[in-house]
Amino acid sequence: MLQALRRSLHERFAAWALRVRPPEPVPVLLTQRRVYVLPTRGGLLYAISLLVLLIGAINYNLSLGYGLVFLLGGLGIVAILHTFRNLAGTSITVGTPAPVFGGDTARFPLLLHNADARERRLLRLFLPGETVVIVDVPPQGSARALLPMPTTRRGWLTLPRVTIETVWPLGLVRTWSYAAPALACLVYPRPADAVPPAPTFAGMQGGQLPSDSGDEDFAGLRRHHPSDPPHHVAWKTAARLGPDAALQTKQFSGTAAQALWFDWAMLPATLDVETRLSILTRWVLDAEDAGLSWGLRLPGGEIPQAHGPTHTHACLKTLALHGQES
Amino acid sequence: MGKKVKPPLHPLTPAQTWWLLATGIAAYVPLAPQMPPWLATVAAGAFLWRAALACWRKPLPPRWLLILVTLACTAGVHFQFRTLFGQQAGVALLLVFMALKQLESRSPRDGLAVVLLAYFLTLAQFFEDQSIPVAATMLATVLMATAALANLTDAHGSPAKLFRLAGTMLLQAVPFMLILFVLFPRVQGPLWGLPRDAYSGLTGLSDTMSPGAINNLAQSDAIAFRVQFEGTTPPKKEMYWRGPVLSLLDGRTWRQGLAAPARELPYSAVAGSPAYAYTVTLEPHNKPWLFALELPETLPPESFRTSDYLLHARKPVRERQRYAMVSRPQVEHNEASDFTLAAAQRLPAGLNPRTREIGAGWTADGSSATDRVQRAIDFLRQQQLVYTLRPPLTGQHVADEFLFDHKRGFCEHFAASFVILMRAAGVPARVVTGYQGGERNPVDDTWVIRQSDAHAWAEVWLDGRGWVRIDPTATSAPARIEENLAAAVPAGDPLPFLARKGFDWLRDARFRWWAINNAWNQWVLGFNPERQLELLAQLGMDAPDWRKMAAWLTGLTGFVLLVLAAALLWRRPRLDPAQRQWQRAAQRLEKHGLPRQAWEGPQDYATRVAAELPAVADDIHAIAALYAGLRYGTSPDSTLTLLRQRVATFKP
Questions:
Q1: Interface contact A59-B190, CB threshold 8 A
Q2: What are phi and psi of B401, to 5 degrees?
Q3: Secondary-structure breakdown of chain A: helix, strand, coil percentages, each rounded to the nearest 5
Q4: Distance (Å, rounded) from C-alpha B551 to C-alpha A314?
Q5: N or C: which end of chain A has fewer CB within 10 A?
Q6: Is the full-model pTM beyond 0.80?
Q7: Is residue B148 a contact partner of residue B185, using CB atoms and an 8 Å limit?
Q8: Residue of B nearest to A77 (CA)
Q9: How confident is the model over B544-600, as pLDDT tens digits?
Q10: What is the DSSP secondary-structure string of B476-487?
Q11: Which residue, among B4, B114, B126, B320, would best test binding to A if mutated, counting the most A CBs under 10 Å from its CB?
């Protein structure tokens, strides 16, 4: 009960303290207005100790005792400024999180930039309830923090509110800020463990059909497209022709015996949506591992036969977002 | 606060352990000499044990063992001090905790406890001593503890970095300390009853005098009080600083007689006689007497005057006290009560028969009291008495043995024997203790009166003149009064170090050191509520009260905070080194009325400068070319050195 009340109060404070409606545009600059300061538990203990020392100094008329207490009091104030300065002024941009499979840990890359001439020490970043990542940001440099977050559902996982805090240098004061930059990680469906064998011949007429995009036998050169995989670029030709000539892509002719169609409709209707997507995911991964070409048919549309990382990603993305608005 | 993200309780790193150990030792060392030896040894043992465990990476001792040792030490402290709550016992316990906490520190939270204990132990040093060296020790300990505190957060910081960080932060804390020190409303302690042992370390004149009492004091270099004269300074031989008046002789011991508080000044100044105005800074001596030049006309605050002309504070002097006085050496006394005069003639029966016989002999011929006093003075002179710091031990008849047998004595022997002689001769007389003379510090023109200046003299009652001071020591060792102790005692007697002769350069350095110490005592240690009000009034704050002080305190602290925050949070645009050199060259040309315009590129600017100042044409073109190459071109970084040299020698 009390726990719940505290949690809701904290949630309200954080929502207010963020000062913008998430997600906010990058770069996020942690201005002085949105950096908050409170003593840590150690800081409270320090303050109580100073009070006891002050009473001692008054009681025994220790002039140097006053001096000591006031020096340490000043140190406390200075610690607030140093801890504040350690965080305020940091700006945050985002990287692209690598897609993960459902159930794996997503890692959100945040880039912390320091425009100042002094290092920012021991910044602690974490997502609500998650592991803390500690980074130092070099002077006039950047540092990357990979914020881990476990995934449960496929689809887009948006970055929740990030807390950035620091207690450096003395641990007496904690300054913190919240940031919610627009960032999402794609979560593929979790590949099923036990699957029916891939429908090798499903959707095929039989026999072997030539395909123009296999990679078994060299079949000539064509003009390079940016989307072609780099290992298909005719580097030797490029070297011979010099930097001014256009790049060429090697073409291979493969056998289409393994050209597959993975069709939503092939799976028994008794299976629920997520299981079907899981199975399709597993097929896609197995097909790519085996170096096969495949196409994907879902109720919403189809992806023509192809293979390679780009194709895999496209298929997995379609599976991940199936039934969700893109 | 929602789901609490606790810092994981990671164990202390080996480096952190060493830092905490060093902090503990830094707090321990200054206090160790004051501790009972067994306790100092136990604490040192604990530190060594911790160091050994850290060296060989052994686990910490089990908790039950530490609890046992703590209980044993607590019992030991109780046995030693008969309490656990007194000041000394408290410090001893804190030291025990500090030492044993080392063996129990596992997490940064324990580390924080060690650092806070170190701060407490730093304060504990001030119970014994608040001198400048102790203040320096305090700064060192605080620096050490603060660096260790920073290390608890930043476990991988190098010692140099941590010390620099702690030092910088402490320096930045100094303005706050100064403001708070001056403006924090001072309260005169204690806030509650102090333990009995609170003032055990104070020395000074006692309210009794038995043979050896004063010459023990005379071996001490400790400062009794300091005096600053305004206007004229009396001659040194006139400087009698009055202390307790002893009129009761009880066997060998002189005690204070009954003295009532006197409402009015019991004497009046001789018209036209000199008056001396001065300020006394009295060291705490745990007795209620306030010393003043004979005879005081004014009354310090919170004090009263007794019928034997002694200034008496309402409470024992337990902190350094400062009061302004006016005294007049030449006074006329009105009258003394019969009771006082009767007490001043009483002698214990059966003691000092030979002395009494001599005194009584002078009453036979009906001579006046003045004559008898003169006879006594002459008698002492004829006896050829020797003034020494090491009088032989005496038996019951102190005066007899001194005057007729060994003839060696200290001022208390002279004064006591003279008073016994006078009483035997029917002249009311009493012993006055106090200080005589002092040493002038030429650096800040302050007179320093030390315990070694403690003195005893006599007063006799003469009808019509009242109490008249006679200093029998002066008759035997006049140098004691006109110069000082060192001149008066025969060579070979042990003297307090500072009273020795020779070492003039040392003396000069010492004077300077005393002057600094005096300023320290006046302005740092003696900064009490009165002094605070006085200073604030001098600074132009009229009628300072705590409300005004609080307002000023807040205002000034806020101001310093703003300035410091601006300095710390202001982001200076960092220039690239080549650009800095280029700006430096341009700055030199500004003096010649050729400032670089914001829109001007290096080549344009160089061309313009070359046209105006042909003498530097080559230089500026070269510099501009180097700069442009570094900044916009592909010049290697090594040309930066060339640019630096060029700019350094560029003198338009």
A1: yes
A2: -65, -35
A3: 35, 30, 35
A4: 69
A5: N
A6: no
A7: no
A8: B173
A9: 777 888 888 899 999 999 998 888 877 655 567 788 888 888 888 888 888 888 778
A10: H-HHHHHS-HHH
A11: B126
